[in-house]
Write a structure and sequence with these properties.
The longest helix is centred in the N-terminal third of the chain and has 20 residues. It is globular, with a radius of gyration of 19 Å. The protein is mainly alpha-helical and 278 residues long. Strand 5 and strand 6 form a beta hairpin. The strands form three sheets. It has a three-stranded antiparallel sheet with strand order 3-5-6, covered by helices on one side. The protein has a two-stranded antiparallel sheet with strand order 1-2. Strands 4-7 form a two-stranded antiparallel ribbon.
Length: 278
């Protein structure tokens, strides 16, 4: 990355952490749990060094994917909801990540409990310029070598997160094939949508136990942006509906209700989905 890109990323990190965005000399605590905590940086000639909270692993690793796929269906939906919470927090700050993919979602340990988002080099504020993303997770409307003039919005992240969940489930058809087809025309996305749908049907097939989640993932990854969820919260709400149908979710929901009843009237869980359930 060039220095100006790094400095832009640092400014975004400072903003998310509720630090002074232009202060590059101090090492400060981060007040956000959405990202791998950023503490500070220093510039040395033509290199910049960033200091982040240490993470154990990311979701692109083969052993992590295998461990994830071995989990019960309700637990995999819980993981999706926890991950979505992180992007809801970013969106509440008007930040669009723009490069959501498994390797940019990390865990503090390998127990699928504490997720953190990394790599905000392509992030920008909603309504600002689209700076780029990763092929395969890229919304079709931005899928072109000519990124100039594209406007970044929350629906970009919704699409990329839906594709990320498909990748975690496995068996999706080749992402490169889909990306190639979706880049052919910005107007007629019929074949692009067909390939995405085929991939999702394979990734969320019945024997995996998450067929009931397929409609939510399909809406998140609509080739036509107008048909997608308006917000990450709307995406989360749909997944919550599915989560509540699993028997395995009952003790989790009961435990959340028990905790909420013991706390004060103004008590709130960290994140979105737990509060939405209770």
């Amino acid at each position: 990355k060039q220095i100006d890109i790094f400095l832009k990323e640092v400014k975004t990190l400072r903003y998310i952490c509720k630090q002074k965005p232009d202060d590059y000399k101090k090492f400060l605590p981060c007040q956000s749990e959405a990202i791998a905590a950023f503490f500070g940086c220093f510039l040395d000639d033509d290199e910049i060094y960033e200091f982040h909270e240490k993470m154990a692993t990311d979701l692109s690793k083969k052993d992590i994917k295998l461990a994830y796929r071995a989990l019960p269906a309700y637990e995999r939906v819980r993981i999706m909801l926890d991950i979505t919470d992180k992007f809801i927090e970013l969106h509440e700050l008007k930040v669009v990540h723009s490069d959501i993919k498994p390797e940019n979602i990390m865990m503090k340990s390998d127990d699928f409990k504490e997720f953190r988002i990394i790599d905000l080099g392509l992030a920008n504020m909603s309504g600002k310029d689209f700076l780029g993303t990763t092929p395969g997770y890229q919304p079709p409307e931005t899928n072109s070598s000519k990124n100039k003039g594209r406007i970044l919005g929350f629906k970009n992240d919704v699409f990329s997160l839906g594709m990320t969940f498909a990748e975690l489930e496995g068996d999706f058809i080749d992402f490169k094939t889909v990306d190639k087809e979706c880049s052919k025309s910005r107007e007629d996305k019929t074949n692009c949508q067909r390939l995405i749908s085929l991939g999702l049907q394979n990734a969320f097939k019945s024997k995996k136990g998450l067929l009931s989640l397929l409609p939510a993932i399909e809406k998140a990854t609509e080739a036509y942006k107008a048909n997608r969820f308006e917000t990450m919260r709307a995406f989360s709400d749909k997944m919550i509906e599915v989560f509540k149908t699993f028997k395995g979710s009952e003790p989790i929901i009961q435990n959340l209700n028990d905790i909420a009843q013991k706390e004060s009237e103004n008590f709130r869980f960290p994140g979105y989905w737990r509060n939405a359930i209770v």
